[in-house]
Amino acid sequence: MWFDSYNFVCGEYDIVPYKSDVSLMYRGILLDTAPLLILIVGHYDTLYNTKFIENFQSKSKELKRNYDKYDYKILLAFLNSVGLGKKFNLIITSQIFTEFIKHLWEKVDDKEHFENILSECFKNKSYIKEESVSFMDCLNQKDFLKKELEIGDISIFITTQKTINSNKIVTIITDDIPFAN
Questions:
Q1: For residue 29, what are the β-bridge partners?
Q2: Other C-beta atoms within 10 Å of 136: how many?
Q3: Are 29 and 173 within 8 A, CB to CB?
Q4: Sheet containing 90-93: which strands, arranged edge to edge?
Q5: Rounded CA gap, 42 and 147, in Å?
Q6: Which of 129, 59, 49, 50 is nearest to 97 (CA)?
Q7: Which helix (H) or strand (E) holds 129?
């Protein structure tokens, strides 16, 4: 299911058909790299009146633009509206974290800002949990070996398969529409 969080937050979304899907969010929300960047860097920008989030461009063919503080506000409003930290946790994989660090490393040149983003806006997020995905699991995925999906996407796929197999399905937040289909 492709859930339109923007229209949900703005009250222009008929939630009734999706009530059971929304309840899946309480099992945890798996963040892709872009939403993680928006959440962490957007929070830093809000605290320190910087514009680092604008250095990150969406890889979604539909968006073709850089992120901004508005993206952070919508994501945060959505997460808060469904009970972030109270009803559920955010989940990332070490592969998503590595992609996050790679992008941060490339786009935030100032060492003090880089350190502050990680220490002040990431490290203290007790509602972010890590799901382990082994490198062998990744190497067993044909889409990864054929360079069709990046390592972060493969880790999401593997984590999703694990949750389906254990009947603990989680929700995924991504801006990568083809990945969601």
A1: 90, 171
A2: 7
A3: yes
A4: 128-131, 90-93, 29-31, 171-173
A5: 30
A6: 129
A7: strand 128-131
Tokens of 94: 């070490």
- Which pTM was predicted? 0.82
Among 166, 167, 179, 157, residue whose Cα is nearest residue 30: 157
| Nearest C-alpha neighbor of 67 from the set 54, 76, 77 | 54
CA 125 – CA 176 distance, rounded (Å): 24
Q: Between the CA of residue 127 and those of 2, 25, 122, 130, 157, what are the distances in Å?
A: 24, 13, 10, 10, 21
- Tens digit of each residue's pLDDT (9 = 90 or more) over 142-167: 988 898 888 888 888 888 888 777 77
Strands (E), 55-108: 90-93
Residue with the two structure tokens 């800002």: 113
Please report which helix (H) or strand (E) contains residue 130, including its range: strand 128-131
Which amino acid is located at 46 in the chain?
A: T
32: DSSP letter: P
Q: Each residue of 61-109: pLDDT tens digit?
A: 666 678 889 889 888 888 887 777 777 788 899 999 999 999 999 999 9
Cα 78 from Cα 22, distance rounded (Å): 12
Give me the pLDDT at residue 180, please.
45
Task: Give 64's Cβ-side CA count (13 Å radius).
Answer: 2
Length in residues, the chain: 181
